[in-house]
Amino acid sequence: MQKTLKRYFPIFVLPTLLAFAVAFLIPFVMGIYLSFCNFTTVIDARFTGISNYTKMFSNQDFLSALSFTARFTVVSVILINAGAFLLALALTKGIKGTNLYRTVFFMPNLIGGIVLGYIWQLIVNAVLLRSGVTITTSAKYGFWGLVILMGWQMIGYMMIIYIAGIQNISTELMEAAKIDGATNLQILGKITIPLVMPSITICLFLTLTNSFKLFDQNLALTAGLPGRQTQMLALDIYNTFYGRTGWEGVGQAQAVGFFVMVAAIALLQLYFTRRREVEN
Q1: What does the pLDDT read at residue 96?
Q2: Partner of 35 for a Cys bridge, out of 16, 59, 84, 253, CB 3.0 to 4.6 A?
Q3: pTM of the model
Q4: CATH number of 55-274
């Protein structure tokens, strides 16, 4: 059996490798090359060195989007994970209707980003219009509108992951801690959080990457208004590439830089949080 598997292994793997190369690897390498070129289409690319990256870092719209995205990511990651963890703690206490609550909290994650953006635009504007303003009147309204939208969509999803981690904690360990006189706060800090670190690692990774690459919700909720002040990195890259003639190379350079930033931050987060994981 093992010899047969080894013999036919390349046959089964080859289609997957070809699909991966055609759909991801080749476009990725071409994208890196095009970030050093001026081009309108991929067949008329002209190598220009690092000029696109120079323009990228001197582009105020890009720097503004980077700052806005960083602030949004920090706030969203903290609020989403704190909210999801508290909900998970509450729903693992054996209260009535736990399964119903889990379903209700998880459902927003099933709604598409564009639809969700327009729904929350109507809701937020309905509230703000009482004061004579809309979500695009000021950048602060757009910022908190995006934070609320992201939290509403992601908290239920992260809650499910935290619940799985909490339920995996040994009941004997919890009972032993209570017998030894540990308070609920001590149990939370010394037992629950350390043993749920694998779930925290996953949730931090998901919220961090999803917050950084947010696009469709940003487009539907504020479209970057007012004056591109609520434009996040993904939307800024899109507008640079498709909305500014002759800036395709700069847009491609921004996309490559965006990938490097997200990958570096995500890998650092994984490295530091996984170091704090303990055996259950």
Answers
A1: 82
A2: 253
A3: 0.90
A4: 1.10.3720.10
